[in-house]
Amino acid sequence: MNVDIYEEQGVSIVHLSGNLDTNTSPPVEAKISNLLEEGTRKMVIDLSETDYVSSAGLRIFLATAKKITANGGAVKLAGPNSVVKEILDISGFSTILDVRPDRADAIQALNA
Length: 112
Description:
Elements: E1 2-8, E2 11-20, H1 25-37, E3 42-53, H2 55-70, E4 74-78, H3 82-91, H4 93-96, E5 98-100, H5 103-110
Parallel strand pairs: 2-3, 3-4, 4-5
Antiparallel strand pairs: 1-2
């Protein structure tokens, strides 16, 4: 799992590549927690290169959404492939979290 963090149009982008599972989720969670502690209020988790998400990964998404909204911010998931989209749909997370077709759409929604 590779995690790239950068800023685009005032939004923190967390770009994940590979599998997000029990083994790879702790460092991802730590990096996202650091962003939240630094006061990030707008975040896109870019899933365009994420091959698979386990329940451990889903927990990170939910915890991130709870923390960021508690601080008056918002998080969007962006660009999941068909496998990850199906995982989000079956788990019900696509109804709980805002899933956008791509990073650009997610950034636009956060900056609207």
